[in-house]
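We close this part of the discussion by returning to an individual protein. In the encoding step, the backbone of a single protein was reduced to a row of integers, each denoting a local shape. The sequence in question and its structure tokens are set out directly beneath this paragraph.
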Amino acid sequence: MLSRLTAGNGHEKSGAERVQQEVRHQELLTPLVQENEIVQVTSPHDRTESELIAMGRVTERRRTIRIRDGAVSSRPDTLVAEEPLEIRLNGKPLAITMRTPGDDFALAAGFLVSEGVLGSADELQSIVYCAGAAVGAPPAVAGGGTNTYNVVDVQLASGVPVPDITLERNVYTASSCGLCGKASLDAVRTTARFPIADTPPLRVEPSLLAGLPDRLRAAQRVFDRTGGLHAAALFSEEGELLDIREDVGRHNAVDKLVGRALQDGRLPLSRVILLVSGRASFELAQKAVMAGIPVLAAVSAPSSLAVDLAAETGLTLVGFLRGANMNVYAGDERIALGTGV
């Protein structure tokens, strides 16, 4: 079992304390780890400070011409970093995703949860950074033997089945867009390890949901500097912020949350609310279902396929969550609605 984050007095840190520490780690921007070093971390909480810095290249500076009310000036601007991450499984390339560097091990673990490969921490032997990339990898990924911290290799524990890595699978996972139509629903139903089973069922007041987007926005430290990141957060049924991740991709932010939960031994996430800063696509609904999350809320619209998946799997799906207004598309039994519905 992977270690859990503990405070100096030996007590497990609260969700709020953990979020604050992770935010501080992501604000360390200058890589200090030496080139060609292989960093192996079986728990994200075992990282050294230099490793955390190398994994936290979340922003970059670029010169920009600013035009404000006709006045022209030149100044540097802070932009969100976007780099490719190649995920290997037992040494074989599996997928490439464009992400904001940081929490790469959690991202890889969460991605494998959503693919049905991992379901518990004891199925994960290790995650390592690799120096460079495989021969034939895209130039943007290949590091020429230098550790760019853009390639990770996930080693499964002994006895854990390794999925067949085919060309079709690589195209699907690299596209980050999911399958289509009925085939997608069937795939999720047959691979989901954690049927949504919140017993007793969550009962969420609309007023509690209404306050979550502001709390999510207030915790987006990198967004404040760049205006260019999506966010995903886990809240308890009482509305406590448990964890938050930011990334240039919505799906990556959710994978980082789920991967951290797997590493901490907290799957399934059967009594939490997942809030995303954008729309609720089929892919995000799929990731919620695969982690056993009963409630997915989004500040924007869901897709039709996301609603179909939610209805079939028992997921509560809330969209257009803005202030006191929201639409409940599926699983309304978990929302404490008044009479007249």
Observations:
- Residues 15-19+32-59+77-177 form a domain with the Ubiquitin-like (UB roll) fold (CATH 3.10.20.10).
- The longest strand covers residues 59-68.
- Residues 13 and 21 are 10 Å apart (CA to CA).
- Residues 1-13, 18-56, 133-144, 167-179 have pLDDT under 50 and may be disordered.
